[in-house]
Amino acid sequence: MVKYQKNNQFQWKKTKEDTVDEDEDSYLHPFALICTNSGYSNTRAKPKLFFFIFLFLLSCTLFLAPHLFSSNSITSLSFFYSFGVDNGSETDVNTSLCSSVPNGTICCDRSSIRSDICIMIGDVRTHSVSSSIFLYRATDPSGYLTGLTDDDEDEYVIQHEKIRPYTRKWEPGVMDTIAELDLVVKRKDFGVRRSCDVVHDVPAVFFSTGGYTGNLYHEFNDGILPLYITSQHLNKKVVFVILEYHNWWITKYGDILSQLSDFPAVEFHRDKRVHCFPKAIVGLRIHDELTIETSLMENHKTIGDFRDLLDRAYWPRIRGLIQDEERKARLKMEKSTLSPASRTMKKPKLVIISRNGSRAITNEDSLVKMAKSIGFLVEVLKPKRTTELAKVYRLLNSSDVMVGVHGAALTHFLFMRPGSVFIQVVPLGSEWAAGTFYAEPSQKLGLKYIGYKILPKESSLYIDYDKNDPILIDPSSVNKKGWEFTKKIYLDRQMVRLNLRRFRKRLLRAYYYSVARKNMR
Fold first, then answer.
1. How high is the pLDDT of residue 328?
2. How many CB atoms lie within 10 A of CB 326?
3. Full DSSP string of 107-157
4. Rounded to whole angstroms, how far apart are CA atoms 421 and 399?
5. 3-state secondary structure of 10
6. What sign results for the dihedral spanned by CA atoms 480, 486, 488, 489?
7. Under CATH, which number does the domain 338-518 receive?
């Protein structure tokens, strides 16, 4: 019950007029209550009081009218929510704002801080010259038409939305570099419709490979994983239409794209033909850093399912090579003079992700020798932008432990089998990023994560600064000054020299765990 009371000669009284039954009037918005209930009632009010009440009601009406009678109901709702009003309903995480879209309309979900996504259903046609996607509708149920025109054609616009299809919505600097698309609904029976050059009978997903593309972490976090989240439920019956198209990106991720779509990708701005689709999804959904939230997926897919897709993508390419290596290994073992017990002992494989420049391990050679002395088979991986992902996947998919310093190359943990060990060397000033971007996602994948936070003496910054400098003893205070300080000091100017005696303890833990697991198979 919502109660409105008055004070009459210091005595509180409750009357029928002062009480609003929430069961009867729960549909009333709080703004309606504000405008229609002053909280004070007096049957013998003076004319001046009535005058002020009249002005108050008139002000409320003028203030709310533009919002209550707006043609865009979503805008009206946004107006109310901007005041922090709770509508009292619970949102089902499995229900998207645009889960049900009427034919001939556009629905845009702009509720996420990470990305916008718009759905178009009906006669969808591309027009790359104007960076537009048109949706033609036979009739307009509301009868509402605006006088906007396009290319001086006498076509009436029913609905117009704009979107930049990239998943860094909260970063205006990078979003300004992403091409903006105009999504327009028009009357089919007015003006000239562009004829279809290519007719598709499957939906399209529009997205950009601009922004931070070129950095492995962002390629997966901002692109590949959101593409999987957005399109996997279509079971490969989808065409990808790409803005800021790069041939090298298609080559690099072609194996993965082939597992998500049965059709070649379309380069939006260079392909001037009119492509027609029955449905368009513009923009990508993204959940969290390098992960998938099962509760938000239509069919409860997990990050493990994404890794299974990577298996299907790369396995045909590397199966033959693995089989050849296994045959050679068996022949070598048969000719070996080692005892049967020695021959059956399986050494765990350790892969070290090697860096050049900032955050490199300066005593990497000593680390390799120590790992071998413990009993590991050691391989050093120096990934480059042009390194074929199938080769990296082959190496890490067969490894038991991966070691690397915090950085984009650690995104390769996605290629490791669940149950494997991931050791991240955490330089000064990168604790939060190391935990958020790699530690938590790797554990969700099922890896055994070990974090190694270096001491100030293991950082090259120890030579550059006084031992009591906040840069060494209180990195969080430096990070609070802003990203430019973090990047300049901790990411771009820091090298790592491991205390091998201290680090050995982590390797031993990983070794004994891996040996036990390997010999249980």
1. 76
2. 10
3. EEE---SS--EEEEEEEEEEEGGGTEEEEEES--TT-------BTTB---E
4. 9
5. coil
6. positive
7. 3.40.50
Place of tokens 């997903």: 205
Ramachandran angles phi, psi of 155, nearest 5°: -115, 135
Give per-10-residue mean pLDDT for the chain (521 aa).
33 33 34 34 42 50 39 30 30 60 94 96 96 85 43 68 98 97 87 84 98 96 98 97 96 97 97 97 97 92 96 87 74 63 72 96 98 97 90 95 97 97 98 97 97 98 96 96 94 97 97 90 70
Q: How many CA atoms lie within 13 A of 506 on its CB side?
A: 23
Separation CA 511–CA 11 (nearest Å): 79
> By the 8 A CB rule, do 256 and 313 touch?
yes
Residue-by-residue DSSP string for 318-360 = HHHHHHHHHHHHHHHHHH--S-HHHHHPPPPEEEEE---STT-
The string of DSSP codes covering 241-259 is EEES--HHHHHHHHHHHHH
Sequence-distant (≥ 6) Cβ neighbours of residue 156 within 8 angstroms = 145, 146, 147, 148, 149, 186, 187, 190, 191
d(CA 415, CA 468): 41
**Cα dihedral value 14, 15, 18, 22, nearest 10:** 90
Q: Which of 224, 411, 393, 400 is nearest to 317 (CA)?
A: 393
The number of helices, as runs of H, and strands, as runs of E, in the chain is 19, 19
Domain ranges in the chain are: 2-79, 106-286, 338-518
**440, containing H or E segment:** helix 440-445
Reading across the β-sheet that carries 401-405, which strands appear in turn? Answer: 377-381, 349-353, 401-405, 421-426, 448-453
Bridge partners (DSSP) of residue 405 are 425
pTM of the shown model? 0.77
**Cα–Cα distances in angstroms (integers) from residue 420 to residues 151, 198, 389, 445, 505, in the given order:** 58, 47, 19, 10, 17
Q: Tell me the C-alpha distance between 98 and 105, whole Å.
A: 11
Instruction: Tell me which residue of 110, 112, 111 sits closest to 287, measured CA to CA.
Output: 112
Place of tokens 């042009």: 386
Contacts by 188-191, CB closer than 8 A, 24 or more apart = 188/123, 188/136, 188/137, 188/138, 189/138, 190/154, 190/155, 190/156, 191/149, 191/153, 191/154, 191/155, 191/156
Q: How far apart are CA 200 and CA 276, in angstroms?
A: 6
Report pLDDT for 283.
98
The CA distance from 267 to 125, in Å, is: 15
Nearest alpha-carbon partner for 311 in 438, 418, 422: 418
The pLDDT score that the predictor gives to residue 322 is 73
Structure tokens at 226: 């959101």
Task: Copy the structure tokens of residue 206.
Answer: 């529009």
Map residue 506 onto helix, strand or coil. helix
pLDDT at 333: 73
Residue given tokens 């916008």 in the structure block: 116
